[in-house]
Amino acid sequence: MPSKTALAVTIGVLLAGVATVPASAAVPAVPASAAVPAAARQVLAPDDGWAAATTGTTGGAAADDAHVFVVRNRAELAAALAGGTDPTPRIVLIAGTIRANEDDSGAPLTCADYADPAYSLDAYLAAYDPAVWGRATRPTGPLEEARARSARNQGARINLRVGANTTIYGLPNARIVGGNLLIQNVDNVIVRNLRLEDAADCFPSWDPTDGSAGNWNSAYDLITLTGATHVWADHNTLSDGNNVDENQPLYFGRPYQVHDGALDVIRASDYVTISYNVFQEHDKTMLIGSTNTVGADVGKLRVTVHHNKFANVGQRVPRVRFGQVDVYNNYYYLTDEDTYSYSWGVGVQSAIYAENNFLLRSADLAFEDFVYDWGGTAITEIGTLTRVGTGPVRAVDLLAEYNAAHDPDLGTDAGWTPVLRPGPITPTAQVPAVVNAQAGAGRI
Ligand code: CA
Ligand code: CA
After folding, report:
1. Catalytic residue numbers, as ranges
2. From ligand 2's centre to the CA of 374, what distance in Å?
């Protein structure tokens, strides 16, 4: 395996002219001043959401020249991230398309490369067919163990651990395909200006006990925050890329779901701001809190979600447990009722404060479906506007629509009022134009 020194080429070393660069990794002749956009050193503005609380979020802004990396493939990215274990401030600039499913020499890896010799999908389908296995218990036994070993092989490759005090910033047209940025038990991380696509799981697991008909579940998100604090995800575009769920087969009558979350915030993560991102063509979009267990999440999972575009995403936008979550000035663009489940998931001890969000919908998408009660008690909603297509804009109370159609009713007061906002919020009528013009990668 090539050394980290050879792969993780630093701009500082380049400028000194002493880097040993492998022939396969030609380095663009870009001066540091051009290669490090000012936005890559930007810190979260004061009061800009929960990530601005206490110490604020600065990511790798303090990086010295030796810790500014330009990376163009998975091996370089992994080396620059140093396994997520080195808290030295660093800025990792993504150049071009990085494919997480490739080996250290840059050769593509397929699902067959990860598969344990004892695993095949055909054998798994035969063993755990409900007609054979039943529906009472999850799969166990040699084939499930072989599936889990296969999954571990893939996870070791595509889970990219991000350390404390890190900024990951996309240079023009930067993209990570097939990877899961794993921000685990660290503080102070910024991810900006990046396209993230299709962290497909080669080995979904069948769970006949999930829901009324069972489900195929996958392991990877595009970005996962687990036990992470002070994280700012800004101006990214997250999607399933060219591997959309509709193209997957049904097995046991259920969709073979190869994707998990787009950006999940779990396990006592806290102080998070998710701003000006585009989430599109994805199902399970943003899970905040992964368990109903009253434990470490209580008093945590505080997240601000503002000026994002949610374009034809299916569910969990967000789905919240425990956290005080400020959801304001987001643009919900929902024109495909076939893939739509719900948007605001009101879970156990959740406290969603939703203000000045705009919903553009198809006429077939029912207002009463926008809120879903996952065991919560209340949600605050102020200032929602909606329209169908180019029709008239009008006010709507999505919580009242929910309560009119469902019992028990949810209360109208989530019990807190956000204060961490950088200034006056956007009038709802202006949200589509503002978000369309500014959200997503390539707009900084
Ligand atoms: Ca997840
Ligand atoms: Ca009711």
Report:
1. 316
2. 15
